[in-house]
Design brief:
A hairpin with a 5-residue loop joins strand 2 and strand 3. By secondary structure, the chain is α/β, with parallel strands linked by helices. Helices cover about 40% and strands about 25% of the residues. Helix 1 crosses helix 2, helix 5 packs across helix 7 and helix 7 packs across helix 8. The strands form three sheets. A five-stranded mixed β-sheet has the order 3-2-1-4-8, sandwiched between helices. The chain has a five-stranded mixed β-sheet with strand order 11-10-9-12-13, sandwiched between helices. It binds zinc ion (ZN). The site of zinc ion has 6 residues, from loops.
Length: about 325
């Protein structure tokens, strides 16, 4: 059996793991801060070092190469990261730099594509042919899997689900557009809606969770208060479900997937989010499409991107996973 090192490069942390080609084993799952402020050379060194440590933990295994998932936009054919505001990179030849550092072949794909491909390979969407996935955290990433492979579109941009317009005159998004899903349902957007509600007088225990410093309210705090039964926090979560439901209903009508998998911190809201989300999708989308689709939380928090980056390597080099 061959093994592949999967790298999940994020704005905050790098995660590495050594995965068997059939996905049944993972060894040496390790994480380190990205340290993007030190510049791209330092990040490449850290990726190479972490990959070496992961391979050492998988002692004696035959390593075929390394799959890298990175924030984009990027070009999977040239292996170049075109632009990442989080890391401050422009036209960074990440694939070839890591490949040279480890002296082994490498592949590069978008981090959200990798996370969703990982959930398809070994997680919540196992066995499905058509899968749509959302990764909800600081932003909203997405991945589209059609006929068991990542759909990347004409120039590797496909799957930017967070930047689907759900309100044509709505909230400003960091991408420059107005009314993107991300501007309503990302972690910071959920916190911002909660803070706005309290500032205009909503009756809520939320301020007590943060010593009355509203700037400390995060999406996590909102879920915590919702679980404790705070009616306003529950309303914020229900509104989140409505916004996500509008987006997911459109995706279900367009792609008719078997599974929509939702990953990231937002899954901490549990049934408080998923029950109204499924209801909203049912109200909006075509019935045969809704009936064919399961909306599920991700099953591989922390490692979906590592599995997926390894799976992308296998698919690109061997034509199968
Ligand atoms: Zn946007």
């Amino acid at each position: 059996m061959r093994y592949i090192v999967g790298i999940d490069l994020g704005g905050t942390n790098i995660v590495a793991g050594t995965v068997s080609e059939d996905g049944s084993e993972i060894h040496g799952v390790l994480s380190e801060p990205t340290g993007a402020e030190g510049g791209p050379d330092a990040v490449v060194d850290r990726i190479v070092g972490l990959a070496r440590k992961s391979m050492a933990a998988a002692r004696g295994k035959t390593i075929a190469g390394v799959g890298i998932g990175s924030p984009g936009p990027l070009d999977t054919k040239t292996g170049i990261v075109l632009l990442t505001p989080n890391l401050g990179w422009v036209n960074m030849p990440l694939r070839d730099r890591v490949s040279a550092g480890l002296d082994m072949p490498a592949t590069l794909d978008n981090d959200a594509n990798c996370a969703i491909f990982g959930e398809w390979w070994r997680g919540a969407a196992r066995g499905a042919q058509h899968v749509i996935g959302l990764t909800i955290g600081t932003g909203i990433g997405g991945g589209i899997i059609l006929n068991g492979d990542v759909y990347r579109g004409a120039s590797d941009i496909a799957g930017e689900i967070g930047h689907m317009t759900i309100d044509s005159t709505g909230r400003r998004c960091k991408c420059g557009n107005y009314g993107c899903l991300e501007a309503y349902a990302s972690g910071p957007a959920i916190a911002a809606r909660a803070i706005e509600g309290i500032e205009v007088g909503a009756d809520s225990a939320l301020p007590r969770y943060v010593d009355n410093d509203l700037s400390k309210i995060t999406a996590q705090v909102v879920y915590e208060a919702a679980h404790d039964g705070d009616e306003f926090a529950l309303e914020v979560v229900r509104d989140t479900a409505k916004f996500l439901g509008a987006g997911v209903a459109s995706l279900i009508n367009i792609f008719n997937p078997e599974v929509v998998v939702i990953c990231g911190g937002v899954t901490l809201a549990g049934d408080k989010l998923f029950v109204p989300l499924r209801g909203e999708v049912k109200r909006r989308a075509f019935k045969p499409a809704v009936d064919a689709c399961r909306i599920l939380p991700g099953e591989l928090p922390g490692t979906a991107g590592v599995y997926g980056a390894a799976a992308v390597f296998a698919k690109m080099n061997w034509g199968r996973v």
